[in-house]
Amino acid sequence: MKKFSLTLQSEKEVLDNLQDHHLCAHEQAIVKEILTAIEKGDAQMLNHFNQFGHSLKHIYLNTYAYRNGLKFGFDEIIFDEYGWLKRAQFLETEDLVFGNKQHYGEHSTLTLGRGPNHKWTYGLFYSFGTAGGAWGLSVYQQPKSGRDEALAAGIADLKNRFTKVLGNNDTLNYKQPIITRTLADIAAFQNAQVQLTLF
Question: What span, in angstroms and rounded, lies between the C-alpha atoms of 189 and 182?
Fold first, then answer.
């Protein structure tokens, strides 16, 4: 496949490429920046964009990933074998497990992690029995100023998700014993955190 490279003559090629794609808002914003750089004759800015990939899609998606990584202090531009920016590896990661730790599907995990600039975030794996969801540590999450802020946000998020389904009539997907046990674990954890601050 021929490597795509942005130049001052790339406007038509960029616009033609967009005809075949439906971009979300942040992708459109980056492409608008590219078109503005072409319009202004800013070759330096186009060279900046070119370092993010071998296709227009790679350029705008890798640029977005890179910019989000900067919020956590990840500033390396390293690609995987497919040309995508390598996933950032968070530091000081820790997992907090709530619910029945012995059985998969009966517990939830809050994962905390820190970026090189000491901004924190969290990921969640949550299970209501059959229903649930998950996302890992990611530069696409909002950065928190410290571990305590990320922990508080993650606990609040997890508690809110379980509180919303407490008493749900769909007991196949939302198993009430799992939900009540997880909420009890969260409450016990929060009480322990309060006790720690008292001493």
Answer: 10
Six-digit token string for 168: 């749900």
Residue-averaged pLDDT of the chain: 93
Find where tokens 């905390």 sit. Answer: 112
In this prediction, residue 2 has a pLDDT band, given cuts at 50, 70 and 90, of: low
Closest listed residue to residue 165, CA positions, set 135, 136, 126: 126
**Quick one: which of 120, 108, 118, 112 has its CA closest to 178?**
108
The more confident residue out of 72 and 105 is 72
Grouping H, G, I as helix, E, B as strand and the rest as coil, residue 79 is strand
Q: Residues 154, 112: contact at Cβ < 8 Å?
A: yes
pTM: 0.87
